[in-house]
Amino acid sequence: MAVATKARTKAEVVEYLATKGEVSKRQAEDILNYFMDYVKDSLKKGITVRLIPFGTWEVKTRKARTGRNPQTNEVIKIKAKKVPRFKPGMGLKNAIK
């Protein structure tokens, strides 16, 4: 698997949106924040967000399991928990091939 050498920051995404959308950076940042809030609020409510063909955000439940403390080698119980998950769609998969 290839490792990304550079990660994009929120500021770079805002700059890109402002340029492509021909809007101010403030408007672009607001739009990005609205989108992120929409995804977070939907996931909190257990609602999946699907943007075809880009991808799907959803909440999965990770089962309870036993683990081991690496410092003491003691067996510990790890509780079940909910975790966000992104599954890329075919459009995104094909774009990076």
Strand portion: 25-35%
User: Could you estimate the helical fraction of the residues in percent?
Assistant: 25-40%
What's the CATH H-level superfamily name? IHF-like DNA-binding proteins
Largest sheet: 3 strands, antiparallel
Sequence of secondary-structure elements: HHEEEEEH
- Total E-strand runs: 5
How many helices does DSSP assign?
3
CATH topology: HU Protein, Chain A
Number of domains: 1
Provide the CATH top-level class: Few Secondary Structures
The secondary-structure class comes to alpha+beta
- Our Rg estimate from Cα atoms comes to 19 Å
The termini sit apart by 12 Å
Spatial strand arrangement across the major sheet:
1-2-5
Shape: elongated
Labels describing this entry:
97 residues, alpha+beta, HU Protein, Chain A, three-stranded antiparallel β-sheet, two-stranded antiparallel sheet, 39% helix, elongated
Describe it.
The chain is of the alpha+beta class and 97 residues long. The protein has a single domain (10-90), classed as HU Protein, Chain A (Irregular), CATH 4.10.520. Helix content is 39%, strand content 28%. It contains three helices and five strands, in the order ααβββββα. A three-stranded antiparallel sheet has the order 1-2-5. Strands 3-4 form a two-stranded antiparallel ribbon. A hairpin with a 6-residue loop joins strand 3 and strand 4 (75-78). Helix 1 (10-21) crosses helix 2 (25-44).
Question: Secondary-structure map with pairings?
Answer:
Layout: H1 10-21, H2 25-44, E1 49-51, E2 55-62, E3 65-68, E4 75-78, E5 81-88, H3 90-95
Antiparallel strand pairs: 1-2, 2-5, 3-4
